[in-house]
């Protein structure tokens, strides 16, 4: 870091990096006392303190596959709370289900419409009942 060699001031380094001058001073102190590896956050690679246990995730996914594999995450969240006394956020449940392949983030859209067949010649009239049968005789 150039501030450690006193090429730029702490304020200039703070403006460049987008942090406060006090944080720059702490980084310079850490760099001088240790090495560049010491500047990496100590919680990197560690599990989150707010994360739910893996056993809970496994048991919830087991309940879902056994009973409610075709329902959405919000309904399943309500069912887990009412029937099993398990509190899980619907968004967390949605991520778990997507990861396990039980839910897709986008539902498949079934197209129920198809294009109308083109008339055999330009200017032909379409029958008003939109039927393809020749009720009034052959087409002209």
Secondary structure layout plus pairing:
Elements: H1 10-17, H2 21-33, H3 54-67, H4 73-84, H5 90-100
Helix pairs in contact: 1-2, 4-5
Overview of the molecule:
With 140 residues, the protein is an all-alpha fold. Helix content is 41%, strand content 0%. The chain has five helices and no strands. Helix 1 crosses helix 2 and helix 4 crosses helix 5.
Strand percent estimate: under 5%
Quickly count the helices. Answer: 5
Mean pLDDT score: 82
Evaluate the radius of gyration: 32 Å
Overall spatial form: elongated
Q: Name the poorly predicted regions.
A: none
First-last Cα distance: 86 Å
Largest sheet: none
Give the helix/strand class.
mainly alpha
Helical residue percent band = 40-55%
Q: How many beta-strand runs?
A: 0
Order of helices and strands: HHHHH
